[in-house]
Each structure stands twice: as C-alpha cells, then as structure tokens.
C-alpha cells in the first residue's frame, strides 16, 4: 500500500489525544472556576469577588454581605423607632438610605454570583460529558491502531509471499502447463457436440456464481448509499473498510491456494489424458451420426441457456433500477421512474423476449428427451473428466493471468489508501465535534442560569438596583 495503515492510525490517535488532553484541561479549569478558594474572602472588595473568588465562594460571600447589610437595616430601623427628638432622625435616615442603596447593589451582586455558579456548574457538567466522549473516541482510535497494525502486517506478509517460492513462479508455471494431451483425449472420447455443451455448461455455472457475487456487491452498494444519506462519513468509512477487507481476502486466498490449485489442475489434466478407451458398444451409442435429433437439441439447449442468461441480466437491471428509484424518492412509485421503465422495456422487449421464445420453442419436450437419451449413454467417468477439465483449464487461465495477479495487489493498494483517507475524514469529524463542543461548553449553562434568575433580574433592571440592575464591571 502506498500509505501505511498503522502509521495513519497512529497519526489519528495522536491528534485525538491532543484534543482529549485539551478537554481535560478545560474540565480542570471549569472545576477551578467552581471550587477556587480565597484564604480570606472577607478582605476581598465586592468589585473583585468575581475575579478573586471561586463561584461557590462568590455566592457564599455575597449572601453573607447581603445578610449583614439587612441586619444593619434592622438595627437602624430599631434605632429610628426609639428616637425622641425629630432632629435626631436625620442621621438614622441617612444611614438607612445608604444601607438600602448598598442592599440593592448586593442583591445585584448575589444575582451575579448565582448566575455565575449556575453557569460554572453547567460548564463542569458539559466538560465532563466531553471528557467521556473524548475518552471513548481515544479508546476506539487505540483499537483502530491495533487493527491497522495487524492488517498492515498481513498485507506486508502477503506481498513478501508473492515474491518467494512457490508463488513467485505460479504465473509462468500455469502458462507452461500442457493442456493439449487432456483436450485431445477428451475430444477422442466425447463427441464434439456433447463436449462443447458440457464445457459451455461449466462456464454457465461459473457465470451464475459471478452474477450472484455481482448482485451481492450491488446490494452492498445500495445499503451504503442508503446509509450515506444519513451518515455520509461513517458510510464512506464502512464501505472503504469492506472494500479493503475484500481485497485483502482475495489476495490471502490467492496466496493460500494458488500452488495447490496449480498442482490439482496438473493432476486432473493428467488423469483426463490417461482416460481408457470406450468399448465398441459405448462408441456406437455415442456416435453423433446416430443422434441427429440430439445434436440439434444440444444446440437448442445452448441457445436457450444464452437467452435465459440475457433475461436474468435484464431482470437484475430492473431490480437495480428499482432500488435506485427508491433511494432517490422513497415515497414515489418506482414503476413511474424513467430508469425502471427503461429497464422493464428492455426486459420485456423483443431483443430479450424474442430469442427466449424461439429458444423455448426449439428446446421442446422431444428435444429434451433426445438429448437426455444421448447424455445418459456417456460413462460417468467421462462426465467427471469433463468437469475436471473445465475446472482445471479455468484455474490455469486465472493463474496464468499476470494482469489479474497484479490487480490483486493494486486493488489492495487502492482500497487501503481509500480506507485510510475515509478513516482520516471520519476521525477529523470526531475531533471537530469535540472541538466545537469545547468551544460551546462555556455557553452550555448560560440560558439555564439566566432563566433561573430572570425574575430577580427584571426587578433589579426596572428598579435600577446598582447601576441599571447591573454591576459596574458588567457595564
């Protein structure tokens, strides 16, 4: 792989740890805002309470100061009640007036302290939640590092194995296998029409498996597209991971089985080449000159198989178009979608249905019976030999294909890079979520804290307690 999966995972983990540690620092600072203690709070002037005291101590000192000034008011009012000479009331009235002004200012300062404490405690709660999310994200990233290291080691080991015996010569060895003796022997024993049809059926069987794999891949793509609508980054990462794991499994399968497949193919072809002669009776029973109807039936069956394969492909196109239409608009009738209509027209049109109808007509009961009666005369060892020959030649074609082998490695490279990029994007979103959460944490409790003191604030603003219901610092 052009990119080392483990290195990329470690880089993501390092970046996430930086964010986690910053969030931890934010929580520590928020707790300090709540819990900070001044050794002599009584010595701190009111205008410095918000800066020199913690939020909890700020509330306590404001409450104590307000209680003290109200005790002074009670004392002054009691003294006023005992005044004998009206001239002496002026002094107490001035004292009461100053006490009431101080009371108004202290009510504002207590409200400020209450709001500050509410905000600080909410901020601590928000930071604590962020710390938990960051810790979880780091745990996931640490697991990804371990997984990436294992996958990288697997990929590196497979690459190394390709360059060492016996895998380093598999392509050349497969290309060098002589198939002629087996092909000639099978041709000597099995009539061309039966042999060709048997080998074609083997290819048809492989095509069914390939079509199933394609359908599964299409279904996976549709699920990914559905998930991407709601969670695009997660969907892209999940799809990239599935693609990489498929590529890794394909290369692992090749490394584990290629040599054995080559040996099996050689042995199978040798067995076909060594087939014994047929008896005279068997040769006469298989002679195509005596099987005119069966020869025609073999051709008809081949045409029908091709027509059915075309129909199956057309039906898959309808299925794919239907899913695409539902992805685009889940509430609409997919039968009204242009893509679905086009696929249905193709499936039900003459290009598909015409050859299918003709082939079904030609391959009727009489044709099937004629072909069955011919095929039943073939000794079972010849059918086994035909299966072995088809499987062996298919395996040798695949093993001798240098481009296909190179594609196994290039697919691993490209899917590995895509996986690293998708995981980087998802990790960036996790860090973005944590960073924005950290930026918003100080605001988290502001609304709740202000709402809790709304009644006091409104009254203080209206009365003009302190400077307009605010502290001097707030103005």
Quick overview of this protein structure:
This protein is mainly α. The protein has 18 helices and no strands.
Q: Kindly state the number of beta strands.
A: 0
Provide a count of the helices: 18
Strand fraction: under 5%
Instruction: Provide mean pLDDT, rounded.
Output: 93
Which structural class do you get from the secondary structure elements?
mainly alpha
- Give the biggest beta sheet: none
Helices and strands, in order, run as HHHHHHHHHHHHHHHHHH
* Euclidean distance between termini CA atoms: 62 Å
Radius of gyration: 42 Å
Helix content bin: over 70%
Task: Describe this entry's structure for a reader.
The structure is a single chain. The chain contains 18 helices and no strands. It has 475 residues and is mainly alpha-helical. The model has no long low-confidence stretch (mean pLDDT 93). The protein has helices spanning 5-35, 49-52, 55-81, 89-162, 170-176, 180-189, 192-230, 232-273, 280-286, 292-328, 338-348, 350-362, 365-375, 380-399, 402-440, 446-452, 454-463, 465-468.
């Amino acid at each position: 792989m052009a990119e080392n999966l483990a290195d990329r995972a470690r880089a993501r983990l390092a970046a996430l740890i930086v964010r986690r540690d910053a969030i931890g620092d934010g929580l520590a600072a928020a707790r300090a805002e709540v819990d900070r203690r001044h050794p002599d709070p009584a010595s701190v002037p009111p205008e410095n309470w918000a800066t020199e005291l913690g939020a909890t101590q700020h509330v306590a000192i404001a409450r104590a100061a307000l209680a003290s000034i109200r005790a002074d008011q009670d004392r002054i009012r009691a003294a006023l009640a005992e005044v004998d000479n009206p001239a002496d009331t002026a002094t107490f009235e001035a004292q009461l007036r100053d006490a009431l002004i101080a009371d108004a200012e202290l009510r504002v300062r207590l409200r400020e302290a209450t709001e500050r404490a509410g905000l600080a405690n909410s901020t601590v709660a928000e930071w604590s939640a962020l710390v938990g999310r960051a810790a979880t994200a780091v745990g996931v990233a640490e697991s990804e590092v371990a997984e990436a290291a294992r996958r990288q080691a697997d990929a590196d080991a497979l690459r190394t194995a390709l360059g060492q015996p016996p895998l380093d010569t598999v392509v050349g060895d497969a290309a060098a296998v002589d198939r002629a003796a087996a092909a000639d022997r099978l041709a000597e024993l099995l009539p061309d029409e039966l042999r060709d049809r048997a080998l074609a059926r083997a290819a048809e069987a492989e095509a069914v498996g390939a079509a199933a794999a394609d359908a599964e891949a299409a279904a996976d793509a549709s699920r990914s597209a559905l998930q991407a609508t709601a969670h695009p980054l997660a969907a892209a990462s999940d799809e990239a991971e599935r693609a990489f794991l498929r590529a890794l499994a394909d290369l692992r399968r090749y490394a584990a089985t290629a040599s054995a497949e080559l040996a099996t193919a050689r042995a199978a072809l040798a067995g076909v080449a060594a087939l014994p002669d047929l008896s005279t009776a068997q040769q006469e029973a298989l002679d195509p000159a005596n099987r005119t109807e069966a020869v025609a039936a073999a051709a008809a069956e081949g045409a029908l198989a091709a027509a059915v394969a075309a129909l199956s492909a057309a039906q898959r196109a309808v299925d794919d178009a239907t899913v695409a239409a539902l992805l685009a608009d889940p509430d609409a009738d997919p039968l009204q979608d242009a893509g679905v209509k086009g696929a249905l027209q193709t499936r039900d049109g003459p290009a598909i249905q015409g050859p299918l109808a003709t082939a079904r007509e030609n391959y009727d009961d009489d044709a099937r019976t004629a072909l069955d009666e011919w095929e039943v005369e073939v000794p079972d060892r010849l059918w086994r030999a035909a299966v072995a020959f088809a499987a062996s030649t298919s395996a040798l074609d695949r093993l001798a294909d240098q481009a296909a082998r190179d594609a196994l490695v290039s697919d691993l490279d490209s899917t590995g890079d895509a996986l690293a990029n998708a995981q980087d994007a998802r990790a960036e979103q996790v860090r973005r979520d944590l960073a924005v959460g950290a930026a918003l944490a100080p605001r988290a409790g502001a609304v709740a804290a202000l709402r809790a003191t709304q009644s006091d604030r409104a009254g203080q603003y209206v009365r003009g307690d302190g400077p307009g219901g605010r502290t001097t610092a707030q103005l």
